[in-house]
Amino acid sequence: KTEDMKVDRVSIYLCVSLQGGVDNEATLTAYITIALLEIPLPVTHSVVRNALFCLETAANQKENHVYTKALLAYAFALAGNRDKRKALLDSLEKEAVRKDGSVHWQRPGKEPETDLPFRRYRAPSAEVEMTAYVLLAQLTSQPAPAQEELASASLIAKWISSQQNPNGGFSSTQ
Question: pTM, whole model, 2 decimals?
Answer without folding.
Answer: 0.84
